[in-house]
Amino acid sequence: MTRPIGRSRPALPAAAVAVSLLLLVSGCGGRKEVRPTPAAPVLPAGPRVAVAPMDNKSNDLSASDIIRDAFVEGASRRGYSVVPVAESDRRLRETLGISYGGQLPSATPAEVCGALGVEGVFYGDVQEFSKTTTGIYNSVTVSAAFRLYDKDGILRWQGNDRQVRQDLPRGGQNLGAEIVVHALGNLLLNPLTPYGRRVGENIARKLPAGALNDAPR
To answer: What pTM did the predictor assign?
Structure first.
């Protein structure tokens, strides 16, 4: 007995098969995660100020840079728009011939503000930046001060800080061993940078956000 021959189904075009596979694969992969665009950093919107080179009364040439950099960072966190020190130093050299803090008395604070195009300028002094070391005694002392003048040359704020650390042997039966430890420690002089940064940061914390808006003191 002969079976009837049925009609065969037409083959799907190759393009249709490829599209179906792509849709299937994309569906199995799930939705692609869309990450939000990170927000742009918020820049200080406070008064535009500059921090002049410090008058360094210590014997350490790096003292003023260490303390000033820390103070600039702190003032920015307090909302002040601080001109980058490289830019303000360049302007002072080119306009007023001032290259270091000891030359600032040659111009008034109002003239400095005008040359820098700012609403206020900070003057700073490195008062102490030293370390005394002996066989049994170590002492670190760092102190500095800053003051803020407005564009009219009026003193609006001033602050200071002092950090002191002293290491002495406790004495007793281990006094000899402690002296040896201190002597060996003196061979590796601890840098003063952490103390200098702490002084600059501490003074900046005392800076009120609206110092240029307050009445002159």
So the answer is: 0.70
